[in-house]
């Protein structure tokens, strides 16, 4: 797995980023997947970064933990006890690995050269895992400098994501963030680079924070009502093994 630098962690997960419309909407969409299966086991987020998603899942009542090969400062200091930092998921204690029943890979798999081998190794090391929750970057035609910055090797189609899980039952696979696809495609066609830093709106004006909250609600609603195969910039996939 790619080990981020301190600068990459700060660019991707600055303090206050949970109120950004993209992160807020993604977190709600991911929680919807857990709610759908009424998940009640132990979840592990592989490549959890600073652990923001882990803490959001725990706040929602899920027994969730994270593991990260790097050693970033936890997003919330109190959440550090649920994060296994500076170690590989394969190095976690066996008794803990046997408790895990759901593995999540949130924007991690596109950074792996051989995802099939990577996934099979996790199935072997986590013998009781029943579900996989994956979040993937979508559509290679909008590959950009931002992807290079965060270590993404390529972007994926819905069919390519489905093909990663030949032994499981795909409970849900769909594109997300459809409204962002046209501007992303335009930037790609024009060769305009993306900003590689994400600005947290927590300290912005009330109008800006309100706009982020409204956009977040829109993207969640979009994920619920639009056709699953309508192109977007991300893909969410939930698999039962």
Written overview of the protein:
The protein has one domain (6-240): Rossmann fold. It has 241 residues and is of the alpha/beta class. The chain is built from nine helices and seven strands. Helix 2 (21-36) runs parallel beside helix 9. A seven-stranded mixed β-sheet has the order 3-2-1-4-5-7-6.
Descriptive tags:
7-stranded mixed sheet, 241 residues, 36% helix, Rossmann fold, alpha/beta
Largest sheet: 7 strands, mixed
Could you say which overall geometry the principal axes of the C-alpha atoms support? globular
Tell me the CATH topology.
Rossmann fold
Bin the helical content.
25-40%
How big is the Rg?
Answer: 17 Å
Would you identify the regions where 5 or more consecutive residues have pLDDT less than 50?
none
Q: Regarding CATH, which class?
A: Alpha Beta
Distance between the termini: 23 Å
Number of domains: 1
Run of helices and strands: HHEHEEHEHEHHEHHE
Secondary-structure class:
alpha/beta
């Amino acid at each position: 797995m790619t080990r981020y630098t301190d600068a990459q962690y700060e660019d991707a997960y600055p303090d206050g980023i949970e109120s950004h419309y993209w992160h807020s909407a993604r977190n709600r969409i991911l929680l919807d997947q857990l709610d759908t299966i009424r998940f009640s086991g132990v979840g592990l987020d592989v490549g959890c970064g600073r652990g923001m998603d882990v803490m959001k899942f725990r706040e929602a009542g899920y027994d969730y933990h994270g593991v990260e090969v790097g050693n970033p400062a936890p997003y919330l200091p109190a959440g550090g006890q649920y994060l296994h930092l500076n170690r590989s998921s394969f190095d976690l204690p066996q008794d803990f690995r046997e408790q895990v029943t759901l593995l999540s890979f949130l924007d991690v798999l596109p950074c792996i050269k051989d995802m099939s081998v990577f996934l099979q190794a996790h199935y072997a090391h986590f013998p009781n895992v029943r579900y996989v929750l994956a979040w993937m970057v979508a559509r290679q035609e909008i590959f950009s400098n931002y992807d290079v910055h965060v270590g993404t090797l390529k972007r994926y189609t819905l069919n390519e994501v489905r093909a990663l899980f030949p032994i499981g039952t795909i409970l849900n696979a769909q594109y997300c963030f459809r409204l962002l696809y046209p501007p992303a495609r335009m930037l790609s066609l024009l060769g305009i680079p993306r900003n590689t830093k994400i600005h947290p709106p927590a300290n912005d004006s009330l109008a800006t924070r309100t706009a982020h909250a409204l956009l977040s609600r829109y993207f969640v609603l979009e994920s619920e009502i639009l056709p699953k195969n309508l192109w977007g910039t991300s893909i969410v996939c939930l698999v039962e093994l």
